[in-house]
Write a structure and sequence with these properties.
The protein is mainly α. It is 74% helix and 1% strand.
Length: 313
């Protein structure tokens, strides 16, 4: 059994323990409606976590998603209010998000600066732009055509949840079966060897950051479905929750080339259950950030110890 599989089994065990314990302690915790609400609260994080998984496996990081998500939500809201057809607005939003991903990669490679610095700077710039273009106000009042589909359900799933399921299945299959997607393990594990073997690593890193930004754009569109509005405050600390879910799922924050979509999905479910447990047990939500931080540290340490990776003195 691979060590990454062991971590997935550990997460499954923890999920089972939390679920069983809370089901006994809190009435209706295990109800289908409550489970849909708990997972629905993390649907935006889930969409972005899929793209972040590839970024982290490649050995990078993308903090700009916390700026891209509200930025694209605001642009999408303004387009709808301006009468742009919904499909055209979605296409334009995804193109804009891809442009931001391209800028991220361009600056990282051109300036030869760590992705943490560049993506953090882009996040801060976008957050400032979001406040400026909205004047700090909520953008609402969507046309009737959009309002009619906001609350649609397909197979019992809301539109955002359905999108998450489809994207998760797509990324799961592609990361296991598609040769190009699977290059992320080789590039992340040893970029120099990947370059010498004939892989255009710079071009591949560009793909990695563009797809991360595009999924953040998808999350921005879905935010309008979830909240029925757009606001510059959306996405506050969302990058922390996204990275925590990916790290808990087994993706290495220290060494590239390690991670999986299945692990990320389980990590997301785990974090969603923790959040739901706080809310339903009546504990102060201020402790959620404390627990998230502890989980992030635990996940990184546990993952590295499990894989037998040690830093040389």
């Amino acid at each position: 059994m691979r060590k990454t599989d062991i971590q997935i089994w550990v997460i499954l065990g923890l999920i089972a323990v939390i679920f069983a314990g809370m089901s006994i302690a809190v009435p209706n915790y295990a109800s289908l409606l409550n489970l849909k609400i708990m997972l629905g609260n993390y649907v935006l994080e889930g969409i972005m976590a899929l793209g972040m998984t590839l970024v982290i496996i490649s050995g990078g990081i993308d903090l700009s998603v916390a700026g891209v998500m509200p930025f694209t939500a605001i642009l999408f809201a303004y387009m709808l209010k301006g009468g742009v057809p919904i499909p055209a607005a979605m296409a334009l939003i995804l193109l804009a998000a891809a442009g931001i991903g391209f800028i991220n990669d361009f600056l990282i490679q051109w300036l030869d600066v760590h992705p943490f610095v560049i993506t953090l700077a882009v996040q801060l710039i976008l957050k400032g732009v979001n406040v400026v273009i909205t004047s700090g106000n909520v953008v609402s009042g969507f046309p009737e055509a959009f309002a009619n589909i906001m609350f649609l359900e397909v197979f019992g799933l809301s539109i955002p949840m359905l999108v998450l399921v489809i994207l998760a299945a797509f990324y799961f299959i592609m990361l296991r079966k598609n040769r190009y997607f699977r290059m992320v393990y080789f590039v992340g594990g040893n970029p120099t060897a990947a370059e010498l073997s004939g892989i255009h690593t710079k071009r591949f890193f560009r793909f990695v950051y563009i797809q991360s930004a595009v999924l953040a754009g998808v999350a921005g569109i879905m935010a309008c479905f979830v909240y029925g509005s757009a606001n510059a405050s959306y996405g506050t600390n969302i990058e922390t929750r996204v990275i925590t879910a990916v790290a808990i799922g087994g993706s290495s924050m220290i060494h590239g080339g390690i991670g999986s979509i299945a692990g990320t999905v389980l990590g997301l479910i785990f974090v969603a259950l923790i959040n739901g447990s706080f809310i339903m047990s009546g504990l102060s939500t201020y402790f959620q950030d404390v627990v998230t931080g502890v989980l992030l540290v635990f996940a990184v340490v546990f993952s590295e110890r499990l894989k037998g990776i040690k830093r040389k003195a």
